Amino acid sequence: VCVFVCVLVSPFLRAELFEFCVKEGLADRALIAKWRKPGYENLCCLRCIQTRDTNHGTACICRVPRKQLEEGMAFECVHCGCRGCGG
Prior knowledge:
This protein has 87 residues and is mainly α. Helix content is 28%, strand content 0%. It has helices at residues 2-9, 15-23, 29-35. It is elongated. The model has no long low-confidence stretch (mean pLDDT 77).
């Protein structure tokens, strides 16, 4: 979350610090690149948008907006445990 705030919300993360975080495994360059695209601001992990990892060839259940799910339906991502990064 801290990296998300530094990269997208405030411009205080300098390029050198960002590269250090990526090198040390503290930040995921591909995930941060997705955060910059509309609709992916809350993306929890890259596996949730990879269609090859699902049974039906679609995105993970956590990417479905809550208002489109059945009321009272309990769901959790099988990959990372996310309970709703789709909005």
